[in-house]
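Sample pair:
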Amino acid sequence: MALPNIFTKDVAEKMVSRINMLTDKSQPKWGKMSVSQMLAHCCVSYEYVYENKHPKAGFVMGLVLKYLVKNKVVNEEPYKPSQPTGPDFVIKDTRDFAKEQQRLIGYIRQTQQHGEAYFDGKASHSFGVLNKTEWNNMFYKHLDHHLNQFGV
């Protein structure tokens, strides 16, 4: 079954509505991240696309990501709770809830406005060229997983 299309305004705004249901007091059903850390964690996928702040993986790690991790990230199968994450996605410091919430909402809306045609055939930071369905699955599945983690 296909995942909802994050590139459509309706789906993007449903995700924004879920994010707006969070408060700085929201508690996770699993895992160790605070709600502010989770929001910052979810921003990393978009930082890869829109900002040049994370170095690309070296050759060997790039092969590992492309051939061993990619399919788990871009397929339609939901993530299991408390799965390990990549080093760039580990947020250890304290983050400002409102700032991270608005940052994530901005990234979602920017992605929706670019649309699936912008992403179709675009190289990802970690996995090489992805098609629009793979980009959608990566963005939607990750957000949905963490919003479920915090009960929204």
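The two ends are 22 Å apart (CA to CA).
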